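RECORD TYPE: inverse folding
INPUT: structure tokens
STRUCTURE:
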């Protein structure tokens, strides 16, 4: 025991983590804070941020244990001088930085850059940029979709660290529910309907108009105060149809809904020029994996990271047009044996993205 304690002290690292979107409360922030949770088991972890309440709000939404994390002054804000940043970062064994296209100049022993979406631009051309890149131990992305774009556009060598998906399915009787889970809007994406929720509402309304009975469409969405008026306008378009909205539900409530749903819909990227704006597609698709883990069969757009999660006809369906979305959904509704078969396979497939595997991969990255 004494030898093990000594070994633990030797391996202890001081690690700093920075996520410029920490107040956004989305899947990307869950990703970064799960890295923190993982590393806290063996290391000291600081989060560079100025508003501790943002982290508290994140923890209300996601089941993370960050009791021992430290919130320290955000040295990556524009008000901090380069000299001050260099002095502070020299204290760290490693810094993990979520890039929005910028690259930090730091003096930590190790530097890891996470990229979680296709970026329009990145600091990679000037002499100083090349110096910054030379200081990076590893670039890592959240999906093959993101990696392929970043590697090609910016000529970087990246690895993939798939997001962790904590699965908490409940043993509840399935109901005739088609489910969608997602934020209503996202401030760092310049798209008024990034998740294409209005598109899915209209598709379901058309199915009901053409004769679909005894099914309902449930949208579990998080809505920020600044978006409430726009959300209410969209909500009114569903009036008179079997469409329900679950707003800002906690993790436990979400899993109850996941567990009741038979089918899961996702449409981010539909109707967009993804060659021009690849960031409009889902970069990975955590909610799709969560739905699969609860036994809901995904019928999701054939774009972005969804193609890495769903195998056509094996654990769900992919679609390119609204007609395909509707017809493949109706196929599942009418064929109960197929629905059950794909549901079981969806659950099995979801295990690829377990938190345990993520922990192992994070530790492998940090040890390089």
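DESIGNED SEQUENCE:
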């Amino acid at each position: 025991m004494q030898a093990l304690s000594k070994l633990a002290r030797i391996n202890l690292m001081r690690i700093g983590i920075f996520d410029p979107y920490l107040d956004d409360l989305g899947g990307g922030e869950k990703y970064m804070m799960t890295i923190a949770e993982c590393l806290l088991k063996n290391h000291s972890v600081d989060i560079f941020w100025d508003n501790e309440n943002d982290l508290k709000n994140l923890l209300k939404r996601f089941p993370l244990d960050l009791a021992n994390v430290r919130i320290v002054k955000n040295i990556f804000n524009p008000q901090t001088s380069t000299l001050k940043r260099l002095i502070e970062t020299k204290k760290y064994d490693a810094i993990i930085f979520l890039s929005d296209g910028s690259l930090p100049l730091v003096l930590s022993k190790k530097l890891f850059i996470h990229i979680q979406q296709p970026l329009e631009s990145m600091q990679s051309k000037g002499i100083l940029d090349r110096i910054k890149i030379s200081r990076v131990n590893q670039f890592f992305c959240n999906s093959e979709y993101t990696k392929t774009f970043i590697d090609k556009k910016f000529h970087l060598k990246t690895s993939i660290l798939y997001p962790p998906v904590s699965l908490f399915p409940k043993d509840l009787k399935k109901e005739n529910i088609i489910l969608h889970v997602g934020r209503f809007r996202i401030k760092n994406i310049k798209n008024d309907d990034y998740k294409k929720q209005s598109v899915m509402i209209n598709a379901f309304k058309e199915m009901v108009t053409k004769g679909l009975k005894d099914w309902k469409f449930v949208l579990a969405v998080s809505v920020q105060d600044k978006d409430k008026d726009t959300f209410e306008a969209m909500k009114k378009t569903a009036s008179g149809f079997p469409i329900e909205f679950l707003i800002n539900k906690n993790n436990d409530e979400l899993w109850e809904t996941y567990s009741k749903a038979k089918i899961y819909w996702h449409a981010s990227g539909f109707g967009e020029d993804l060659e021009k704006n690849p960031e409009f597609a889902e970069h990975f698709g955590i909610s799709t994996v969560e739905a699969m883990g609860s036994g809901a069969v995904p019928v999701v757009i054939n774009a972005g990271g969804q193609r890495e999660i769903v195998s056509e006809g094996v654990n769900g369906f992919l679609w390119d047009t609204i007609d395909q979305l509707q017809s493949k959904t109706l196929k599942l509704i009418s064929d109960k044996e197929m629905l059950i078969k794909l549901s079981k396979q969806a659950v099995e497939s979801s295990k690829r993205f377990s938190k345990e595997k993520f922990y192992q991969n994070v530790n492998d990255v940090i040890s390089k």
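NOTES: Residues 336-350 form the longest helix (15 residues).
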